[in-house]
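#onboarding

Welcome to the new folks! Below is a worked example of what a typical request in this channel looks like: someone posts a single protein sequence, and someone else replies with the predicted structure as tokens. Don't worry about understanding the tokens yet, we'll cover that in week two.

Example request:
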Amino acid sequence: QLQLVESGGGLVQPGGSLRLSCAASGFTLDHYAVGWFRQAPGKEREGVSCISNSGSSTNYADSVKGRFTISRDNAKNTVFLQMNSLKPEDTAVYYCAAIIKPKFVGPLGICYGMDYWGKGTLVTVSS
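Example response:
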């Protein structure tokens, strides 16, 4: 069974940091580009970051540039999202998703029309 499982969410104060993980099971992630997306209450899902299958190319939404860093460890079949200087507006459910063959190239790189999705992890930024 092909699965993506996110972890690392939680409650953090403004200015704090969290590291999200996206672990794959049932398939090898190193053939896939992986993206992080988020959906805040009452808002549409938005793309946050994307990393190519090799890790050589990364893209970020303007709202997180300079604060978030995406990385991957293909040996561990895992992709990470390091989130620093968190703001209340970063509060959302964060999802990871994977795509093997690009369908579209845009501001978020090739992370459009994703093939597989995780179930999400909640990040709450509040004092």
